[in-house]
Amino acid sequence: MSEAADGDAATRTFQVDDAMTTPDAPQAPSPIAFNRNTIIFFAVACLIIANFLYRLFVPAHEYPMRTEQVMDIGLDILLLAGLFGMRRLAPKLQILFWVALAAAVGSLLIRVLGGDASWWTGHLVYYIEPR
To answer: Biggest alpha carbon distance in the chain?
Structure first.
């Protein structure tokens, strides 16, 4: 009689453990993961906006090397792609997403529409300082 009771208890424990390992509904992300994702989204958006404002208001004084120019354009495109990828991670920061998106597009438009100096430097204004 005690063996049957022990067998039933072991079966019940296994069933409870099995139900715990295979949840029916997807689990929500932990608060720590949500906070980390929000911080990364915020950092990427602020980097894009700060980079755009720097290029808009600070004049360039020399042309970069070709490799630096290509790497800078590639970094802008990768940050834009990362911004789109992280859009759903911070639903409360959608305004920041749209501002960062406008800044990223603005950075690329400065290069394309600003002329030869803007294509090379990424800045809106270029001049050589006097000696």
So the answer is: 101
Would 13 be classed as within a structural domain? no
pTM: 0.71
pLDDT, position 17: 47
**Domain total of the chain:** 1
Q: What are the CA-CA distances from residue 83 to residues 7, 87, 105, 123 (Å)?
A: 55, 6, 12, 22
Among 12-16, 71-75, 96-100, 106-110, which stretch is predicted with the lowest mean pLDDT?
12-16
- 59 lies in which domain range? 33-121
Round to whole Å and give the CA distance between 19 and 119: 60
Measured in degrees and rounded to the nearest 5, phi and psi for residue 130 equal: -70, 155
Q: Is residue 59 part of a domain?
A: yes
CA 130 to chain centroid: 40
